């Protein structure tokens, strides 16, 4: 039974990876690595909460109960349990490395309890970030995907403030910005630009969305970054973190138009932009370089716009 079920799951996963493409798959693996890196320095119960949020999101969003009951009868609960135990392995491994055996056992117990919860999906409108600019549909869509994980990272940042761990808070800020940039890089068709009145209108809206929505989304993270060490130097880091994150969002919204048909090149440029964003946040003079890159991408988009 398990062999048949998991062979079907593997085939579905491979089809999903082909549909997503190299760029999205690599970034998703990077996100998983960053989550594990963040929780490595956090208390054990935050690893438990992170697993619980992922497990609940997965459990209540799945709609395969009828299919599994048809083919496997009442044994489908064992399939759920096996899946959740497999999902818990990275978290249990992380806690085992930290010698936090009690929290690791609780993760295993939660995996079993999750499989026993009601399987009926909850019909609720998925929330997104509040107060986003009107018409910024790509940011609203990104929020519906990322909001649960964003709340977990904010909670980890608050813990970083509590234990005065500036590096943990800074890594959390970098993680949020990098993931949002990835989600803003979803491919679009050429006709997407026809929704804008002119090239000036396009750049104006993209700038408003990047700096306006960027400020709203990053505000809790920036507050944590400031309060971890309330000094003028830390305030300067917060200001440049906001400026460079907004520039990064703008760069990725332009990048998806330029290299949408070459995922490998887009992946390489994405990592370069992430590195420049992190460098510009820590060493403020590199913000000039980030601004110049934004100008180059805008020029390429303007050339692309004229071909349509």
What's the structural blueprint in terms of helices and strands?
Blueprint: H1 2-41, H2 44-61, H3 65-72, H4 76-97, H5 101-116, H6 137-162, H7 166-183, H8 199-227, H9 232-258, H10 263-282, H11 287-307
Helix pairs in contact: 1-4, 1-7, 1-10, 2-4, 2-5, 2-6, 4-5, 6-7, 6-8, 7-8, 7-9, 8-9, 9-10, 9-11, 10-11
- Total helix count? 11
- Strand tally, please? 0
The poorly predicted ranges are none
**Helix percent band:** over 70%
Order of helices and strands: HHHHHHHHHHH
Q: Mean pLDDT, as a whole number?
A: 80
Globally, the shape reads globular
Major pleated sheet: none
The structural class is mainly alpha
Jot down its keywords.
globular; mainly alpha
Provide structural commentary.
It contains 11 helices and no strands. Helix 9 runs parallel beside helix 11. It has helices at residues 2-41, 44-61, 65-72, 76-97, 101-116, 137-162, 166-183, 199-227, 232-258, 263-282, 287-307. Helix content is 80%, strand content 0%. The chain is mostly helical and 308 residues long.
Short description:
The protein has helices at residues 2-41, 44-61, 65-72, 76-97, 101-116, 137-162, 166-183, 199-227, 232-258, 263-282, 287-307.
